[in-house]
From TrEMBL:
Span of domain Core-binding (CB): 1-90
This protein's UniProt keywords: DNA integration, DNA recombination, DNA-binding
Gene Ontology MF terms in the entry: DNA binding
Keyword DNA-binding on entry: yes
Keyword Hydrolase: no
One GO-annotated biological process of the protein: DNA recombination
Protein name per Swiss-Prot or TrEMBL: Tyrosine recombinase XerC
SUPFAM superfamilies: DNA breaking-rejoining enzymes
Domain Tyr recombinase stretches: 110-313
Organism: Candidatus Sungbacteria bacterium RIFCSPHIGHO2_02_FULL_49_12
Length: 321
């Protein structure tokens, strides 16, 4: 059977048997297409260790038309897709390279970029006023910091997802795993005020402005130092996109005078760092973030361990005093 057909079968397997998200399936399709396009082979038996080694070199030296290379993590995503594809082939008794022959590249230690207390306060206070858009943006920022949601998780929320009375709700995260997140008083109040001013009946929790520009035209609206692009909006397409949320966060960071790049994921980092700095145990933070493995959560510990600081201050360089 040709590899292209096997790839198609595998992607359908991910969708039906594994219940993977469409984004995951699209990513696997992209990674496998790149490999097959590079390898120029039709038969799975042609995949061998020397070929994988050459492909790893190709990924490591890859550069697009703008000269941008692939991050080590992205290179590993390509290899993970191939490895899982080979596992699928083995289960179907298709002769090919054993999946365990593919080793992932060693990852450099991750640097966690988060907002310090004063930066965070300035960002959360940046949406000023009581317009619908300002109330929405304030609710989004408070919700990010209160829950540690991923960008895609927040963008996919519906009105009936959030229980404002209980101050908690469940969210479906990576790997289709469901976890409980909690609302701070500030986040609950911000979401309440935003929803109270909404005039539409769209199911999405966060929606785009329904201001209509002339047909096929766009215009720009200035709110303080933030510029919003207003496009023609169909009444059936109001949900705020992840990209729009990213731009919004970036705009308010600039308004708050924060010079470094600020993203929704930094607010997730800030959420985790704040919990650990204030004494939360790492297993609880793992659950709140929705991490499958504790090692993923442990990236925060080196910047939050008050105990190590206290030990250093208590015992270091005593002979110099």
């Amino acid at each position: 059977m040709q590899l292209e057909k096997l790839k198609k079968d595998y992607l359908e397997h991910l969708e039906i048997e594994k219940n993977r998200s469409q984004l995951t399936i699209q990513n696997y399709d992209h990674y496998l297409l790149r490999f097959l396009g590079w390898a120029k082979i039709d038969n799975a038996s042609a995949i061998n260790e020397p070929m994988i080694r050459e492909y790893r070199l190709y990924l490591n030296r890859f550069g697009d038309k703008f000269g941008r290379s692939l991050k080590k993590q992205t290179q590993n995503y390509h290899l993970i897709a191939i490895r899982n594809f080979l596992k699928y082939l083995a289960k179907r008794d298709v002769k090919s390279l054993a999946a365990e022959k593919i080793e992932l590249g060693k990852m450099p230690s991750r640097e966690i970029d988060f907002l310090e207390g004063d930066e965070l306060e300035r960002l959360l206070k940046a949406p000023s006023g009581d317009s619908l858009q300002t109330l929405r943006d304030r609710a989004i920022l408070e919700l990010f910091f209160s829950t540690g949601l991923r960008l895609s998780e927040l963008a996919n929320l519906n009105r009936d997802s959030v229980n404002l009375n209980k101050g908690e709700f469940s969210v479906r995260g990576k790997g289709d795993k469901i976890r409980i997140v909690f609302l701070s008083d500030a986040a609950r109040d911000a979401v309440k005020k935003y929803l109270a001013k909404r005039g539409d009946i769209d199911e999405a929790l966060f929606v785009r402005p329904t201001i209509r520009a002339p047909a096929a035209a766009t215009s720009k609206k200035h709110t303080g130092s933030i510029v919003y692009t207003i496009e023609p909006v169909r009444q059936t397409d109001l949900r705020l996109t992840p990209r729009s949320i990213e731009r919004m966060v970036k705009g308010y960071a600039a308004k708050a005078g924060i010079s470094k790049k600020v993203t929704p994921h930094q607010l997730r980092h800030s959420f985790a760092t704040d919990l650990l700095r204030n004494g939360a145990d790492i297993r609880s933070v793992q659950a709140l973030l929705g991490h499958s493995h504790i090692t993923t959560t442990q990236i925060y510990t080196h910047i939050t361990d008050k105990g190590l600081r206290e030990i250093h201050q208590k015992f270091h360089a005593k002979s110099r005093k």
